[in-house]
């Protein structure tokens, strides 16, 4: 069996790394690296990040490609979950277009760009790495923040360095707060308390005030 035929074994894999590919190919590392370069150039393989790949045939076979992109966001950097702008846009809270898949991670801030998308990761403290759930979409299990947690993460990352938080600053983000419910605010406030930072203590009240004035 030639190497290209061996590669078809990976057509059922949602992703694989170089180690997994080496086990299938059973060839020396240098030869494997050369094959990978050739397959990438020919479009047979798609590089998700260094050392992580998916076959073009597998990607083209997926009916719900956006669900797969969200799944990939979870695996490119672990642990992580979808949040901030990407999730807020889903709920209609953010009206502006989002060009990247945005996620929260315990690890360093990072960006990956590959043929299926742009993936941004923002770091958050361990005690705030919560408020997400696993949803099944298109057959993929995806970690995604709740509406309230995505809103909290959005503000936390932008206002962490701010000395004070005022209404004018919040309104500058032009969010559609009509989509935020009472239960969302209760959940949001629970994350505010987790920060144990005095400057965030008025944020929930300011958001409610802005919402009521519209």
Can you give a write-up of this model?
The protein has 214 residues and is of the alpha+beta class. The chain has two domains: 3-61, Winged helix-like DNA-binding domain superfamily/Winged helix DNA-binding domain (Arc Repressor Mutant, subunit A, Orthogonal Bundle), CATH 1.10.10; 65-212, Beta Polymerase, domain 2 (2-Layer Sandwich), CATH 3.30.460. 44% of the residues lie in helices and 20% in strands. The protein has ten helices and nine strands. It has helices at 3-7, 18-25, 29-42, 56-61, 65-76, 84-90, 147-159, 167-171, 182-195, 203-212; strands at 16-17, 45-49, 52-55, 80-82, 101-105, 110-114, 117-123, 132-137, 140-145. The chain has a four-stranded mixed sheet, sandwiched between helices. It has a three-stranded antiparallel sheet with strand order 1-3-2. Helix 6 (84-90) packs antiparallel against helix 7 (147-159). It is elongated and about 70 Å long. The termini are far apart.
Category from helices, strands and their pairing: alpha+beta
**Secondary-structure element pattern, one letter each:** HEHHEEHHEHEEEEEHHHH
Put simply, the count of helices is 10
- Tell me the span between the first and last alpha carbons: 67 Å
Text of the CATH class of the largest domain? Alpha Beta
Q: What is the C-alpha radius of gyration, as a whole number of Å?
A: 21 Å
Short description:
With 214 residues, this protein is an alpha+beta fold. 44% of the residues lie in helices and 20% in strands. It has 2 domains: 3-61, Winged helix-like DNA-binding domain superfamily/Winged helix DNA-binding domain (Arc Repressor Mutant, subunit A); 65-212, Beta Polymerase, domain 2.
């Amino acid at each position: 069996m030639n190497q290209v035929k061996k590669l078809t074994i990976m057509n059922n894999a949602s992703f694989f790394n170089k180690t997994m590919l080496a086990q299938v190919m059973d060839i020396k590392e240098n030869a494997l690296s050369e094959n990978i370069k050739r397959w990438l150039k020919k479009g047979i393989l798609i590089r998700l990040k260094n050392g992580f790949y998916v076959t073009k045939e597998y990607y083209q076979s997926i009916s719900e490609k956006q669900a797969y992109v969200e799944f990939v966001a979870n695996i490119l950097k672990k642990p992580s979950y979808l949040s901030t702008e990407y999730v807020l846009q889903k709920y209609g809270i953010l009206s502006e277009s989002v060009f990247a898949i945005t996620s929260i991670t315990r690890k360093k801030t990072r960006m990956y760009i590959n043929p299926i998308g742009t993936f941004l990761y923002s770091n958050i403290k361990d005690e705030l790495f919560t408020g997400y759930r696993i949803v099944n979409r298109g057959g993929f299990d995806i970690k995604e923040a709740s509406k309230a947690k995505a809103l909290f993460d959005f503000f936390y990352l932008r206002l962490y360095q701010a000395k004070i938080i005022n209404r004018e600053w919040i309104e500058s983000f032009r969010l559609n707060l009509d989509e935020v419910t009472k239960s969302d605010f209760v959940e949001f406030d629970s994350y505010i308390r987790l920060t144990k930072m005095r400057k965030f203590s008025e944020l929930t009240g300011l958001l409610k005030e802005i919402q009521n004035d519209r």
